[in-house]
Amino acid sequence: MRFNRKHGRGQASVEYLVVCGALIAALLTPVSNNQNVLEISADTLTDWYTAFAYSKSLSILPN
Q: What's the CA gap between 15 and 22, in Å, rounded?
C-alpha cells in the first residue's frame, strides 16, 4: 500500500491543536481550594514580588 501525501497534510496542525488543548485543560483544571494552576501561579508571583519590593525598600545597614 502506498502512502498518499494528500492524506498526510495537516497532521502536524492537528497534533499541535490536541497538545495545546490538553495543556490548556490541565492549566484550567481546579487543583486545590477550587483554584487552578494559573491562579496559584499568579498568587505566588504576587506574594514573591511583594516580599521583593519590601526587601528593596529596606535601608542598607552601616558597617
A: 11
Phi and psi at 35, nearest 5°, equal -115, 140
Whether residue 14 contacts residue 8, with contact meaning beta carbons closer than 8 Å, is answered with: no
Matching residue, cell 514580588: 49
Sign of CA dihedral 11, 14, 18, 19: positive
**Phi/psi of residue 18, nearest 5 degrees:** -65, -45
Q: Residue 42 — pLDDT band, cuts 50, 70, 90?
A: very high
Half-sphere exposure of 31 (CA within 13 A, CB side): 11
Rounded-to-integer distance, Cα 40 and Cα 32, Å: 9
**C-alpha cell of residue 5:** 501525501
Model pTM above 0.85: no
